[in-house]
Amino acid sequence: MVGVDTSGPWRDRLAEYLRSQLGGDRVAAFVIEGPGGDITACAIGLVHQGLPGPDHAGIFGQVQTVVTGWPFRRRGYGRAVTYALVEWLTDQGCTLLTLTASDVGAPLYASLGFTPSPRTMRLVLRPFHRA
Predict the structure, then answer these.
(1) The pTM is what?
(2) Is residue 31 in some structural domain?
(3) What is the tally of structural domains in the chain?
C-alpha cells in the first residue's frame, strides 16, 4: 500500500478478524512457509454474497492480499498461493473474482485469466485504519 500509513490499531482488528474467520467458508489464507517458519508467500481471499447478474451467480470472490517476500520472488510461490486461493473461491461457488493488482503482480494475475476492468472505482469515507 504505497503512500498509506500501515501502522496503527487496525492491525489488532485484522488479527482478531482472521482468528475468528479463518477455517470457515467465507475467508481463506494459503501460505508457504520458508526455512525457520517465516511466511514466504501468502494469499488471502473472501467470499461475498451479492445480487446475481447476467454473467455471474452473485457470489463474488475477492483476492484481498497476495504477497511474496522479496528474497523468494520469481520462484512460483506467488502463483502457487494465488492458484490455490482461486480454486478455493471457485469451490465456494464464486463465479466472479476481483482483485486490485500492483504493476508487479498484474502479469501473474493476467496469466491466471484475470482481465483489467476500467470501471472499478473506490471511495474511502474516512481514514478508518487510524481509529
Answers:
(1) 0.83
(2) yes
(3) 1
How far, in Å, CA of 83 to CA of 94, rounded?
Answer: 14
pLDDT, tens digit, 9 for 90 and up, residues 73-125:
999 999 999 999 999 999 999 999 999 999 999 999 999 999 998 888 877 77
Measure the CA–CA gap between 54 and 60, rounded to whole angstroms.
Answer: 14
Output the nine-digit C-alpha cell for 71: 528474497
Task: Decide if 100 is inside a domain.
Answer: yes
In a domain, 103, yes or no: yes
User: Looking at this protein, which amino acid is placed at residue 61?
Assistant: G
Cβ–Cβ < 8 Å for 24, 59: no
Q: What is the pLDDT of residues 54-86, one digit of tens each?
A: 888 899 999 999 999 988 999 999 999 999 999
CATH of the domain at 101: 3.40.630.30
**Domain residue limits at 56:** 18-130
